[in-house]
From TrEMBL:
Start and end residues of each ISXO2-like transposase domain: 133-294
Coiled-coil annotated spans: none
Name of the protein described by the UniProt record: ISXO2-like transposase domain-containing protein
InterPro entries xref list: Tnp_ISXO2-like, Transposase_27_IS1
UniProt-listed NCBIfam families: transpos_IS1595
Length: 358
């Protein structure tokens, strides 16, 4: 039976009232009306205050006024939905991502009848809601650093042709973007882009320092920075030569090695390399997928990648976050800023939830 026939069969089973409700909703879907409703309006997207009151309507939607900062907002302000007119298609896009993973932009453009630029923007808007660095690491905790070539893929106006990174030689060099992979045996994990160049102990401190529980035994290769991080923080540490990957049955880094090779497969092969600017966003996606591996239907959580009130701010400030990262954690030169402007982008980016570069 085709999907359409199945739907018709199911439709017949509904009672009269539900039938007419559904028909109305389908009508809305067709005309791209507000499909995705957020039940709980929550805090002010500008200042996070919960001191808000209803304040009339805006284009048919309930408007709210924040008593703390005196700004108006509706349910979608600050979320991935801000500024999106084709809501039905956006919802479809999100469900494709959650069910099928990252699908090439040209395919998405064709399937949903949107431009490639829109397909790109929507992908990254959704990714901006996915960083979940919650929970402390417990017990055996593996840590390793992996690298990706520095890449300015997609950046316009560069004077030299090699947009896709520098030297491919092994060993530490200033074209290697380092990503720290941490995982304990309960699948609490973290994937953080830390620096371009050699990993430092303070990078580890900055990224996972406050998530190391008292009972943690850190397992890694003999990287001096990991060693000094452990020593400084008085963390039990088991290490071995990196060629061996294993000390004994319990002390190995096979979990993080597995994560790392799957991530490299996704980014370097499936997506044929991603720009350093978006590397952390993709790592967040991957981390999200890995930590939800055993959960059957991701779509049951209707908030995923959608209603986080910082998503719009995060999305519109990625270029600034990236610029800060390059200036602070690399010896590369930040060049040719992307010239895109959003009227509602916040000027003060300090309070913004960043994708994870800082
Ligand atoms: Zn406010």
């Amino acid at each position: 039976m085709s999907t359409k026939e199945q739907i018709i069969e199911l439709f017949k089973e509904l009672n009269g009232k539900d039938k007419s409700i559904l028909l109305n909703e389908l009508g809305d879907l067709k005309s791209n009306k507000e499909q995705i409703k957020v039940d709980n309006i929550g805090n002010c997207p500008y200042c996070q205050s919960n001191h808000t009151v209803k304040n009339g309507k805006h284009k048919g939607n309930q408007r709210y006024l924040c008593k703390a900062c005196n700004r108006n907002f509706i349910y979608s302000t600050g979320t991935a939905l801000q500024g999106i007119k084709k809501r039905g298609q956006f919802e479809e896009y999100r469900s494709i991502m959650l069910n099928e993973g990252i699908v090439p932009l040209k395919t998405m453009s064709r399937r949903l009848d949107i431009s490639v630029q829109t397909a790109f923007d929507w992908r990254h808007k959704i990714l901006c809601g996915l960083r979940s660095n919650i929970g402390d690491f417990e017990n055996i905790t593996e840590v390793d650093d992996i690298w990706f070539l520095y890449s300015q893929k997609g950046r316009q106006g560069l004077k030299y042709s090699r947009k896709r990174g520098g030297s491919k030689r092994r060993g530490d060099n200033d074209f290697q973007v380092k990503l720290l992979v941490t995982s304990d045996r309960n699948n609490t994990n973290d994937m953080s882009v830390v620096r371009i160049g050699r990993l430092k102990a303070k990078d580890i401190e900055r990224k996972i320092g406050d998530r190391i529980g008292d009972d943690v035994t850190l397992v890694s290769d003999k990287h001096p920075s990991i060693k000094s991080f452990a020593k400084k923080n008085k963390i039990n540490h088991v290490s071995f030569k990196s060629s061996k990957h294993i000390k004994d049955d319990v002390h190995h880094v096979q979990t993080v090695n597995g994560l790392a090779s799957r991530l490299k497969g996704e980014l370097n092969h499936k997506l044929r390399g991603v720009s350093t600017k978006y590397l952390q966003s993709y790592a967040n996606w991957f981390q999200f997928v890995e930590s939800h591996k055993n959960k059957v239907n991701l779509l049951k959580d209707k908030d995923i990648g959608l209603t986080n009130k910082q998503q719009w701010n995060t999305f519109t400030s990625i270029e600034k976050q990236y610029a800060n990262f390059i200036k602070k954690y690399s010896v590369r030169t930040y060049r040719c800023p992307t010239k895109r402007n959003w009227k509602t982008a916040l000027k003060d980016t300090k309070s913004i939830v960043n994708v994870g570069y800082m």
